[in-house]
Amino acid sequence: MNSEQKQAAAEAANLDIAVGFTLPHRSARGRIVRVGPLLDQVLSAHDYPAPIARILSEALTLTALLGATLKDAGGQLTMQAQTESGVIDLMVCDYRGGELRGYVRFDSDRLAEIPVVPTLQALFGKGYLAITFDQAVSGERYQGIVPLEGLSLADAAQNFFAQSEQIPSFVRLAVNDTGHVAGGILVQHLPEGEEGRERLHTRLDHPEWEHVRILAETIKGHELSNHGLALEELLWRLFHDEEEIRVLSTVALTKGCRCNFEHIRGVIGRFSEADRQEMVDEDGFISVDCEFCSRVFPISLSDLGA
Ligand SMILES: [Zn+2]
């Protein structure tokens, strides 16, 4: 390898990954992610205008951060932003086993009327953010919903953790100017040392947490989205004065979707004969589309043995 190839390989190693870490002496834990090629794969299925591509990139980064906190490798995390009156009507992202996917439904006429760099309010109007954790092993399902408020999606996520989960959290998301690389960090205070259990009293101003939050806040957006910078190096920059930074295993992230003919044929196969007759077109096909991938799957009724 020449030096250019070496650099390219090093940069690629800093992309499409999530790294977990803890600060054991501060009862803090976190995740840091950077995505690149997978963003291109998700976005290439659509022809989104820049502001929509940007918010979806942020949302995928946030979904990766939250998904990477799932203990159960088969668990799923779904994030949904829904509005009553926004330019964006629906934004959905989900995470399962390192696989991410997402799409946005929006009104292109109304998008043309708002600023090129729109606020969260301009995009969503009065909306809410719903985050669902599905644990595969225990079958446990938990959903929290908060109003979509604040200046950014990161603010809305912080509100989610404060209001719905009662966990003091810091979230920052960044998308670089080309729109091809995004990064994010999530840091949380878990003084009880246990995750996912009821907390009756939460102190958002706990001195230990104040300290960690102030350090975390020094991270710059361009550092998060600079794939020349290794994530571990970034953690070191933030927390090198701490007694210990424990870096957990790295999770590889990819674009993934569950849509395929077999799966969709199975779903259609469970509909009643009468329902199928209602859905079928004049050529004998039921067309099912995957909004995540912008793909249409024509299922032949005769294939179903109907
Ligand atoms: Zn799909």
Number of strands: 13
Mean pLDDT: 91
The spatial strand order of the largest sheet comes to: 7-6-3-4-5-11
| Low-pLDDT runs | none
Order of helices and strands: HEEHHEEEHHEEHEEHHHEEHHEE
Quaternary structure of the protein: single chain
Shape: globular
| Heterogens | zinc ion
Q: Major beta sheet, specifics?
A: 6 strands, mixed
The helix content is 25-40%
Tally of alpha and pi helices: 11
> What structural class results from the helix and strand content?
alpha+beta
How far apart the termini lie comes to 58 Å
- Residue fraction in strands: 25-35%
Rg value: 21 Å
Account of the 3D structure:
The chain is α+β, with helices and mostly antiparallel strands. It contains 11 helices and 13 strands. The strands form 3 sheets. The chain has a 6-stranded mixed beta sheet with strand order 7-6-3-4-5-11. Strands 8-9-2-1-10 form a 5-stranded antiparallel beta sheet, sandwiched between helices. A two-stranded antiparallel ribbon has the order 12-13. The mean pLDDT is 91. Bound molecules: zinc ion (ZN). The site of zinc ion has 6 residues, from loops.
